[in-house]
Amino acid sequence: MTMPLTAATAGPAAPAGDADWWRSAVIYQVYVRSFADSNGDGVGDLQGVRSRLDYLAELGVDALWFTPWYPSPLADGGYDVADYRDIHPAFGTLADAEQLIEDAAARGIRTIIDIVPNHVSHEHPWFREALAAGPGSPERERFWFRPGRGENGAEKPNDWVSEFTGEPWTRTTNPDGTPGDWYLHLFTPEQPDLNWNHPDVRREHEEILRFWFDRGVAGVRIDSAAQLMKHPELPDYPAEPGPGEHPHIDRDELHELYRSWRRIAESYDDPRVLVGEIWLPDAQRFAAYLRPDEMHTAFNFDFMTRPWDAAELRASIELMLRVHAPVGAPSTWVLSNHDVTRPVTRYGREDSGFAFRKKRFGTPSDRELGTRRARAAALLTAALPGSLYLYQGDELGLPEAELPVAVLQDPMHFRSGGIDPGRDGCRVPLPWRGLAEPFGFSPASATAAPWLPQPADWSGLTVEAQEADPASMLALYRRALGIRRAEPALHRSALEWVDAGPEAIAFRRGDGFLSITNLGPAPIELPPHESILLASAPLDGGRLAADATAWLRTAPPAEPTAP
Hints:
One of its GO terms (molecular function) is alpha-amylase activity. This is Alpha-glucosidase. The chain is an alpha/beta fold and 563 residues long. Helices cover 24% and strands 13% of the residues. The chain has 15 helices and 16 strands. The strands form three sheets. Strands 9-8-7-3-2-1-11-10 form an eight-stranded parallel β-sheet. It has a five-stranded antiparallel β-sheet with strand order 12-13-14-16-15. A three-stranded antiparallel β-sheet has the order 4-6-5, with no helix packed on it. Strand 5 (169-173) and strand 6 form a beta hairpin. It is globular. The relative contact order is 0.11.
């Protein structure tokens, strides 16, 4: 295991510049396993990402967010971490990661990595030691081992449920072969939850943060950030828990923890950034994590889960801007990620919202309609105040892949009893060039097929094909991100609503920029403007087509005349 760098020998700094870069940054999510395979083994790797840095720079992103790249048995796509200070051998080496961070920084691109603090892998040394040490041992205090209830402890310790459906408790076996204590895992059995009341757990994660910050990482995305703290007595669920009273979600003790992490982040000359993954229905509780001494930003999942409806999306925008304003934090905007059905497929369905519980095989989708709406949504979100997250492949307009059951690997599918298709459909390797699998994901000399099969009809969605088409989704994203970077109004200016009818979302940013999205079934008139900066679809008789967005250059407001 490599030792942390000292301050005197710290790795390369993130790109110099605005200390508040994260407030309006475009952050590209890299799911390494599916991005680019450099050695032909069918699995994406860090050298593959390095080989595509120019593509990412041309796309116009400010930072890369890497989902877990650590050693892991991959029981849950890498979120079951066995060693937080190294790289999964399939992805490369620690030296590869350090070089990637440096190469990206040379192109003005920062690096954000995933931290997974709620749990570790069952192959993590701490958990192996805990199993070997037996009941009542100090090694087990880093986790949540408990005797069962009922006769001979045969019943689980409480009534909690897993995030992946099924039971969150697994019973161990004593050295003599008899049934032993149970351990808690809010996700899969291969992901035992850590006890954040234990000083070893806190100290270890502080050292992990410094380990990566010293190597030039510009920030961390904190997985399941509202789950870490548990009620120490692990009680059953209360009938009607009040704010902060849930036994394992959004505990008040979390805020002190993230304040301590913020102090670490700000101890660097170029302060690092904390980004939380927080799913909470209470908007005020959500915003509490974004106070000036806690996290910098948190994922806004509300917008991503709403259906394609003007009233719904506007309500989400208003809610998020209102919630973030008192704490002075920017909202984040995202259309998808490695867990969520891709926009092209989602927006083409009769129910165009998203909920995990609704995922089912064979749900029909109109790809043409979904693509049109995804293009409009891309411009809508890119024009909103705050930071923008882009999941790899959305810039290509990739649909959710319908995969054969035999190739599925996601535990959400198996733990649902086979009802839920899981998340593999949005994790299929990217198509780069060519007319057949592996579409340039792997080199021509590859000895293995991609780890998930690519749909045969993706030949028209490759980067190569779209670069030759000025009307492609890739071309739209490149132009949009270029305008977003060059347009001062899209960096810090507030949003001012414009009335364009009940089926439209329109707003100004600063002097001279206006975005309008038509979510209705018929074309609508454009507001007064001097020119069209960009549109997601051709105009229809001079009007904005259905399911389309336009960015307009408008005349600045007239100066008031003297009385």
